[in-house]
Backbone:
């Protein structure tokens, strides 16, 4: 080949390479732009991944096709993403998985089988403990990985737990459970016995709010069956009929404070939300649940709900049962990190090291300057209606 022909060939090759590079650069830029649109839609519908999932990614297919992959718990988000991309692409392939996948997994609901189960951020025993769930709590099973299940609890919180902690059920099986005769345990802690004798053995432990199916009575005991099939006896005086309880349980200033006081001295546990150990928001959530209300899980989520109480000019507007929120402000934006229940008389109860009572009055011995310097806001929960973050148990469809 002559030198002039070789140079001409190189120039042609360079031109072709440049054109290909420009095409792929444009395609890459366009994909990035569309992915940004997808992310904006996801953030609009699922702004907090603690209570929702929307992880959708864009891939290029053959002949200019656009492939959507990923998963979401929000159908509205999926529909908007598809509608937006349908207007921009000739061929759209929807491979987004809507969780729970009720087509592949018929048993996508379940009940907690132990007194308290640990809920973690990732499917690993070394992962952060983010919350807990009590015996008999109904859950959605979003997906499985090895021996772990990703679940959503009635407060919408999403986390991982061991598969053995949940009794998976179909929609029909869950409907049967909801119609069954159920009882709710009223004491903070207790035991499930294997007989009614004085020297009976133990089947398992119980915590306040445990929900169990009743199958009979014997002497002064209720015969119950757990979600995993174990049977036992629980003292009749320590339980209430669940359907009657959820219909009549009072949520008053006095009842909230009365339950809160029974937690005094419990140790603090990050992620704890039972009468064994609690973090600040788990304590608040547990107290309100025993009074028939389901609140959001974390303090920063709880702060989004309820009616604001003015504390700018003092504490005269506060009422018993109101929630006090603490944290910091940065550029005018509040970052809530702690929550407490107001008891009246300028006192509040909270889980901080242990469940204790502190005062808003600097003249009192139980005054905490650290807490007062971080007080941000107050919210009223009692009497609030039509708030998605404050749901009466009787109105929650899972119960």
Residues:
């Amino acid at each position: 080949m002559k030198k002039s022909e070789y140079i001409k060939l190189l120039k042609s090759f360079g031109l072709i390479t440049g054109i290909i590079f420009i095409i792929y650069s444009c395609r890459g830029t366009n994909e990035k732009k569309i992915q940004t649109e997808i992310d904006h839609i996801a953030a609009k519908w699922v702004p907090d991944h603690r209570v929702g999932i929307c992880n959708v990614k864009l891939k290029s297919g053959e002949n200019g096709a656009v492939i959507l992959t990923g998963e979401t718990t929000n159908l509205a988000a999926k529909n908007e993403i598809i509608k937006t991309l349908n207007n921009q692409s000739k061929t759209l392939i929807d491979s987004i998985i809507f969780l729970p996948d009720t087509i592949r997994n018929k048993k996508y609901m379940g009940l907690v089988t132990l007194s308290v189960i640990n809920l973690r951020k990732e499917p690993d025993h070394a992962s952060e403990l983010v919350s807990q769930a009590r015996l008999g709590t109904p859950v959605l099973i979003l997906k499985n990985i090895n021996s772990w299940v990703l679940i959503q609890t009635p407060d919408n919180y999403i986390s991982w737990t061991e598969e053995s902690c949940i009794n998976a059920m179909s929609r029909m099986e869950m409907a049967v459970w909801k119609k069954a005769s159920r009882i709710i345990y009223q004491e903070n802690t207790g035991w499930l016995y294997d007989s009614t004798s004085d020297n009976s053995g133990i089947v398992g432990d119980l915590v306040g709010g445990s929900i169990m199916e009743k199958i009979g009575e014997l002497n002064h005991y209720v015969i119950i069956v757990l979600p995993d099939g174990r049977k036992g006896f629980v003292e009749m005086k320590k339980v209430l009929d669940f359907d009657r309880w959820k219909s009549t349980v009072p949520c008053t200033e006095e009842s909230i404070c009365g339950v809160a006081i029974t937690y005094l001295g419990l140790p603090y546990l990050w992620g704890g939300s039972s009468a064994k150990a609690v973090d600040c928001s788990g304590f608040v959530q547990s107290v309100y649940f025993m009074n028939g209300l389901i609140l959001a899980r974390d303090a920063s989520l709880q702060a989004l709900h309820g009616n604001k109480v003015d504390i700018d000019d003092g504490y005269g507007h506060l009422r018993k049962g109101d929630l006090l929120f603490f944290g910091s402000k940065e550029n005018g934006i509040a970052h809530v990190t702690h929550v407490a229940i107001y008891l009246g008389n300028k006192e509040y109860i909270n889980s901080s090291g242990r469940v204790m009572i502190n005062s808003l009055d600097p003249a009192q011995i139980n005054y905490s300057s650290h807490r007062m310097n971080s007080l941000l806001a107050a919210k009223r929960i009692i009497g609030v209606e039509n708030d998605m973050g404050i749901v009466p148990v009787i109105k929650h469809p899972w119960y």
